Amino acid sequence: MPDPTPRLLDELRYFLTALGYFTRVPVPRWVGFERHYLNAAARYFPLVGLMVGGVAALVYLAALRVLPASVAVLLSMAATLVLTGAFHEDGLADCVDAFGGGYTRDDVLRIMHDSRIGAFGAIALVVSLALKWQTLAALPLMHAVWLMLAAHAASRTFAISYLLTLDYVRAEGKAKPVAQRMSATAFALAAVCGLPWLFWPDWRLGCLTLAVLAALRFLIGRYFVRRLGGYTGDCLGFAQQLFELAIYLIGLGWISS
To answer: What is the extent of the structural domain holding 205?
Structure first.
């Protein structure tokens, strides 16, 4: 019977690679780095998102003992920004600058590659963060905690789903090693890690959220193809932010109705 230890060690390496890529958490030296690790690590991105959501929930619960809900939510958001290095928020700003300011495909890619932030990107960041803050602050305690976990995990699941269907459009780039086509098996593992959280504690809300996210995924994907012919790493960050915000807004709308 084959020894499963090497396979398990590889999977642990891929998970730690995902953790090191998407957060500021230091990983052990033995993990090493090979370009193909990042593509294999993509299946664990939702699990990393779940951990980020867990940190947000813990900071929120701790701060809530001595501070108003609005301040506690803001501190939890700050914790996730520090933990991830604002990785996805950077993609949001770059994409809004590029799509808002570029006319041709080459213009969009050039602006997206520019590390400077423009007016469109700055406005998008302010609006996005403000909406997240106010939405979570308006939720009852346990619903806010649940949505923090669900949104961070499920939004990453939907973002990496583009690795199944779209092409990476840059010849080179930071996301190039990640951006190989994902297998259906790998995505199934990602979905198991990232989607079940949507269905607790209310499966009806989970079904509604899943349907809305699927429709939003289709629309965003069509836009990427029309403007670029595919996606970039920034596009995945942009999509993750939209999916995360959509989950919060759907949850608040459902609970408030």
So the answer is: 45-256
